[in-house]
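User: Fold this; tokens only.

Assistant: Input:
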Amino acid sequence: MGPRILFVCHGNICRSPMAVGIARKRLGNGAIAESAGIAPSSGWATEEAVLVMKAVYGVDISGHRPRSVADVDLAPFDYVIALDLSIYTRLKESNRIPEEKLFGWDIEDPIGMGYQIYKQTANKIEKRLEQFLENHGLGV
């Protein structure tokens, strides 16, 4: 079995759904990748996130529904990745995640910025994921 990763962002409609799509494509069926938000939006993944994932990665995230990290059982996850440092700080202060499982990345929120910024964000997520996998001996 591959790694079990939870990606957490703010609204769970941009960065973390894209991270899940990229991780699932990169890691295949042996891994579990899920997402949540600290303040989930209503509705679905943003149109730009859906378009970038489909056009660049061939991944369909159009069915993604936001959910709160407060509603997620964190115990089964090997890694919880906060997609920016403010999210990391909030998760760390919640004391729900063992320190060795919690990681903070530096992915800016692309909400409202347009397709090209979403594309750059997805590319940055992909690069950070590759670094993360390499650093943790998970080069699946």
